[in-house]
Design brief:
By secondary structure, the protein is an all-beta fold. About 0% of the residues lie in helices and about 35% in strands. It has a 4-stranded antiparallel sheet with strand order 1-2-3-4, with no helix packed on it. Strands 5-6-7-8 form a 4-stranded antiparallel sheet.
Amino acid sequence: MAWPLFNGSTTETNLPIRWSKTENVAWKTPLPGRSGATPIVWRDSVFLPSPDEEKKLRLFCIDMNTGDVRWQKIVGVGDRETGKNNMASCSAVTDGKHVFALFGTGDMAAFDFAGNKVWQRRLPEEFGAFAVMFQYGASPLLWNGTLYVLLLQRNAPVYGHARDGRPERRSWLICLDPDSGKTLWRHERVTGAREEAMEAYTTPLPFSGPQGVSLILAERTQ
């Protein structure tokens, strides 16, 4: 499998371009709930999130060849839906040794490929409940051995799910150590945008230019 190019393209060839319930289907695996996340593949392992019937948020590891569920782990609780979006919309990332999963509740965890938990964090304990209208859905970025999490949210929080007693919210790009989950640094996003325009659901994008590597943070201005 080609390394991701961070632009939606691939160098792979002879890929199927049509599907139906039977055409180009190798196997089907039922999941307890729906997700807006993209499944990720490393060799013969497929990782993807899903909520269950009890609103618990799970990370699944599935055998790519058979569709069998190798393991599933609960990372957080409290799934909510807004429209067609829910708390399992962030795609996982992996370095081939660990897989990192983030959910819209702010629950984040790392597991090895056998399903053993390496570390876990609840980001709202530090940054407040995520104050975005259609539920948080930005995927982590794993780049050059470092994890980046983008948290762009509204200040002050007006949504019921974000009212946790904290009167203000600040927006951040957070850099984490993938081995421990500890924060290495954080950079505040200051904006003149107002109301919903302060929020974003995007993933940081690495860009190599003449002045070195930069991280592009896409957001609206108003």
